[in-house]
Q: What sequence folds into this?
């Protein structure tokens, strides 16, 4: 047959059989999707959520401080003369808060000028630390009271109010604001202990037989970061009380902010 006699015959293509998903492939895809979701949740919980929650806590704290400033100032407490002839205000002792009840605001200039976190009764994760802010230990002394005003907070997750405890420097101000005024403590030292060492909460931390007449503050959190193995503990001593009628104290003046902690706790 000549080349012009007929068109070449092209074999018909057989239709491809549609690939069928196997149980293994479906399971693999589901596990991959689940893994991505878990990673996204972890990223939210550890970083993105922390940033948002911390900002919300500070904004709420600023609103509380503004409301306290607009209310009529309580009558200042009596002035007391010290041995050297100087005078100071005898600090009023607030009543202990009930579980999850708002108590005060904490300011730490080293943590930033916007740091303003609520303090609430109790140290339960479910009722206080995870949802509200900083917690007051049961049986803690109160601000300005002789003994140990002891607090707990997260170093990671839920706004991590105590994330930068390890960045405190000697004499840094730790200021507790109540409706009466401001209680200023000065940071002294930092240490790491085992969770079983609850004697850090004693009236004189770790010294059950000692009586000093001092007023202490103790801030505790888990350590290292993302772990429950130890506790990081920051101690401070009381400096003075400034009544609300006299305005905010100089101890709230800005200082160089701390850098984010590379070590830590939950």
A:
């Amino acid at each position: 047959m000549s080349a012009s006699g007929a068109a070449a015959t092209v074999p018909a293509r057989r239709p491809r059989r549609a690939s069928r998903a196997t149980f293994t492939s479906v399971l693999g895809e589901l596990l991959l999707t689940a893994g991505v979701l878990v990673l996204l949740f972890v990223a939210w919980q550890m970083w993105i959520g922390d940033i948002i929650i911390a900002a919300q806590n500070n904004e709420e704290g600023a609103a509380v401080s503004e409301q306290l400033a607009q209310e009529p100032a309580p009558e200042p407490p009596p002035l007391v003369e010290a041995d050297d002839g100087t005078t100071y205000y005898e600090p009023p002792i607030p009543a202990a808060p009930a579980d999850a009840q708002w108590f005060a605001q904490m300011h730490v200039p080293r943590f930033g000028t916007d740091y303003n976190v609520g303090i609430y009764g109790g140290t339960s994760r479910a009722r206080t630390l995870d949802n509200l802010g900083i917690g007051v230990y049961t049986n803690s002394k109160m601000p300005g009271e002789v003994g140990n005003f002891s607090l707990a907070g997260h170093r990671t997750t839920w706004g991590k109010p105590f994330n930068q405890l390890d960045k405190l420097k000697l004499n840094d101000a730790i200021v507790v604001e109540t409706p009466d005024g401001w209680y200023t403590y000065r940071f002294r030292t930092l240490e790491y202990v085992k969770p079983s060492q609850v004697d850090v909460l004693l009236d004189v931390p770790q010294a059950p037989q000692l009586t000093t007449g001092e007023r202490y503050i103790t801030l505790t959190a888990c350590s290292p970061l993302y772990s429950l193995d130890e506790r990081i503990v920051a101690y401070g001593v009381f400096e003075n009380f400034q009544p609300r009628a006299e305005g905010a104290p100089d101890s709230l003046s800005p200082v160089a902010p701390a850098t984010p902690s590379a070590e830590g706790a939950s």
In short: The helical segments are 23-70, 125-129. Residues 1-7 have pLDDT under 50 and may be disordered.
